[in-house]
Structure formats: C-alpha cells, structure tokens
Structure prediction request, 149 residues.
Amino acid sequence: MQGWLEREHVRRWWRDPVEVALEKRREHMRDHRTEQYVIVVDGRDVGMIQTYLVVDYPEWEAMVEQGAGVAGVDLLLGEEDVIGRGLGPEVLQTFARDVVFARRAATAVAATVEEENRRSWRAFEKAGFRYVRDVEEDGRPHRLMRLER
Prediction:
C-alpha cells in the first residue's frame, strides 16, 4: 500500500500524507467499520478497494446525505500499467455485485470522485453508477456517484 500511495498517479488524488493514509488503513483494520480488499490480477496485487456503511461515518454522511442502507466505496489502482484498460469499471461492477450487494441490507453504493479526475468518474459511469450531484469535499469539487441495487 505504501508503494502505491507514493506513486505520482495515486498521490495526485489521494492527497493525505503517506503516513496518514497508512494509519487510516490500520485504523480500519482495528475498528472493522471499513472492509479493505486487495485487487489481484493474474496473481499480481494491482490495487485496493474498500467499502463501508455511509452512516458509520457521520461527517461524510452529512456531506453526501445518502441514508441508511448505502455503502461507500473507494477504489485505488496502484499499478500504472493497469490503468486505462477497463479494469476500474470491471472491479467496481464485480465488487458491488459480489461483495456490497451480497448484504441484503445494502440498497445502493455511493462514491465521491474529484471533478478533475475524469478517468475515475468515467470508470464509475461505465460500471453503472449515475451522477447524483456535485459536492465539496476537502475544499474541492467532487461528483457524487450512486449505483442502485
């Protein structure tokens, strides 16, 4: 994870200092509110995806206003050579179907994607997420994306 977070194509969008981002990952492992998964392609670790209930993070829930039953999702493709090959939409679709929606209580999946990160929000669109509205997160414009069950 540290190696991915140090790469320029990741640092551009995951702006927390590396140690802060790693501590967040460790905290998620301790408190179990967020489930983290490694994305493996042909036996090679290429990224990370995580999910959580939006209501478990009240500050984020207040910003996105998605309600009970909605899971959040974050995607990081750490290996640059897998970007732009359709992996993002495939992972998002499969993950939503097989992990998030495997829980009967999950009604939708939501994510915020920085407006400037066109490649990322296009991946969400290709995976079936629809644009809901603009939100401001960390002082930057983001697109709120949502996929219904």
